[in-house]
Amino acid sequence: MKQCAFLTLDETGDFVIDDEHAIAPLNLLGWQVATVSWRQTHRPWSDFDAVIIRSTWDYWNDVPAFLKTLEQVNRETRLANPLNLVHWNMAKTYMRDLQQKGVGIVPTLWPDSLEADFLAGFQSQLGVDEIVVKPVVGANGEDAFRVSGSCTLEHLAGIQACFHNRECMIQPFMPNIISEGEYSLFFFSGEYSHAVLKIPAESEFRSQEERGAEIRSVAPQEKLLLRARQAIDTFSPAPLYARIDFIRNDADDFLVMELELIEPSLYLRMDPQAPGRFAAAIDQWARAGYF
Known about the structure:
Elements: E1 2-8, H1 23-28, E2 31-37, E3 50-55, H2 63-76, E4 79-80, H3 83-90, H4 94-100, H5 118-126, E5 131-135, E6 145-147, H6 153-162, E7 168-172, H7 176-179, E8 182-188, E9 191-199, E10 214-217, H8 222-232, E11 241-248, E12 254-260, H9 274-288
Parallel strand pairs: 1-2, 1-3, 3-4
Antiparallel strand pairs: 5-6, 5-7, 8-9, 8-11, 9-10, 11-12
């Protein structure tokens, strides 16, 4: 059988990981799958015919080491998603590239630093009362802050300190994240697979499952699917897997919040056919040598 590795983290903790749903379909296609830490050193990567980055949800704590591992993998075998996309997608400045290609994104400012009175200036530039501050490199909602005029000076100072010598991005707070939720659409080798709606927990604005969000399987309306296809069509060839997160705006359109190509949760358990689609995409990618 052909050998495939799913890269993961060392300690799963409270993370919900459902990559195992793809293992049985891959077995049926002639693949033996090993789930291994991206930090492992005991087994050569050349043992594997393909290595798929999956739940490596601690990499942002040591980005240089993570990239060094991926570079080693890339020298010894086939890696997905490919290294050039990993580099591009790691910093959320990729959103500017999407916007330049005509993809609608949540309006975003890219300040070099946060000044002591940052709130009023960004509120004015974006024309909103509330903003969200996020790191340019980060994941799982870590160090993402919802900021309004009711925040104390102490809280604002803490946010400023968090981003001292650290790049950040500023977006308007989108109320529909609370009233409706965030949509995630999944594509395998450029083909739509399934979608979920992530509804933040009470008193929370972040939509991660580990933060208590409710996850629902949904059928995306035509406009949402169109916006997702516009985003995925900016890639040639299409990545092996992609998750595109959307929020509905006040004009009843959908804007990209994030486009995840490195280690997105694929919510394979939410659609009975999704594991088979993912397995088939891996098998086709490995045989065709897309990257």
